[in-house]
Amino acid sequence: MKHVNELRALYQEINTQFIIIKPNGDVVESDDVLFKSKLGSNISSIHPFFINISESLKEEKTKFTCVHLKINTKDFVCDITIRKLPNKNLLIILTDFSEHYNSFQSLAQSRNETAISSEFMEIDNYLLQKKETFKNNFIANFNHEIVSPVLSILTFKSMLSKTQLSHEQKEYLDIIDKSSLTLKRMVSDIFDISKIETGNLSITNKRFSLKKLVNLIKIEHKQKCLDAGLKLNVIYKEDMPVYIVSDKLRIQQIITNILDNAIKYTHKGSITITINPIYRRARKLTFNIKITDTGIGIDSKYFDFIFGRFNRLEQHKHVEGNGLGLAITKQLVELLDGEINIESKPNEGSEFVITLRTTTPLKQTKSSLNEKSTDSDTSKKELLLVENNYSDQLSIFKILAASKKYYVDIAMDGNEAIKLQKKKSYDLILMDYKMNSVDGFEAVKIINKTSKKQTPILVITGHKIDNALLKYYSPYFKEIIYKPFEEETLLKHVAMLIN
Ligand code: ADP
User: Fold this and answer.
1) pLDDT tens across 335-393, in order?
2) Which long-range contacts (C-beta less than 8 Å, at least 24 apart) are formed by 389-392?
3) 277 Cα–ligand 1 center, Å
4) Whose CA is nearest to atom 16 of ligand 1?
């Protein structure tokens, strides 16, 4: 076995040179570990540092640290110790710390750079914050200024559309309608983004029926899908609770944004919304909302990009949009303690999955006593709207829902109405006169004969009805109103028949 000293001789990294010089500087001896020094030559010819070295020494031993020497094109950073020997000669001990000093220097350098750049960052941050505050205040004020004119355009447009217009005027009005809706959407998107960024968008957690909300969204989008030649499916899984505690408005906004995109970027096929429970324990609930389309799809390399503000894919720029929808959606999902993911393949379609963590209310029935919410209001009346024209269905539904006095179920035709009214007792049925399969009047007669409670029926029609027919069926319904009707007319009749 080798001893420490032998090992030291083998492995010690030698970085020290010993040189003996005469008092006049001539080299007497050198071990040349770092550089060659010719015997008899003067040490000052190796480097000017050593000029008159013996005269400048006061002590027996003098140490210089961190001396930079360039010798034969090589750079050294050395600590140099000079000792006076008893025979007046001098011993020069040079220890090379180049590696150590260089790395220390680059560390110091990078420390300096970090300090400088963090100062710059602080300044940048300050300026950025000032800019952001200015931008957000500007948007907040500007939005109020712009929203009211847009709303008044929309209101007067709707009033104008009820007057006698030529075909050409109707077309112009349609353009005004579309453009002002786009403008309204743009303004509210920008407003939402600025509210989220300033932390001013608050979340309200209340009990509501998610099932009803999804149904409402379906009704609102059905016509749009039909116009685009698409089928809209909604799957509300049976084991998913109907009532949840969360922010209804924000969930509506999230689903609507993704669904609107699915409709925009799908040219044929279908769109499916699936509400799926993932985890449920006590009142805790994790569920997801999947929105799947058979549209043009997105390359996976853009998955992160499309969630950025104003980011749109180049190839989709001909489609109307502002690139804010997904950015807002992502931030809303995060505010609701959730996440949004995407799976997609070009030309095959996309699937957006929103996972939300929430709670369920104590009771899943409508008459939950402790919670005050519009959904738990037992004084609300139950209506059944039987209408097979989607746009009429939507406008009647909206009028009734906006009054906040009614729960509205929808049937597409007489057959469905007959089935529904057997399951549930309604306070009023609103029946369209002309429908497929069983027509309105026939359905009215069947319902009237089969319903346990005498549910009043309000017939709605856009057609002139033959007098004899009217006379024959009149015992089976209470009232009839003719389309087009004013909102107040509808609400007045509904209220009158229920009370
Ligand atoms: P936009 O107003 O452009 O639709 P979004 O933020 O909602 O803005 O979407 C950003 C981009 O993501 C869109 O411009 C489009 O390129 C892409 N995208 C979003 N949804 C879909 C989808 N369902 N299918 C294909 N591309 C989509």
Assistant:
1) 998 999 999 999 999 999 999 999 998 776 654 433 344 444 457 888 999 888 777 78
2) 389/432, 390/222, 390/223, 390/226, 391/223, 392/432, 392/483
3) 26
4) 313
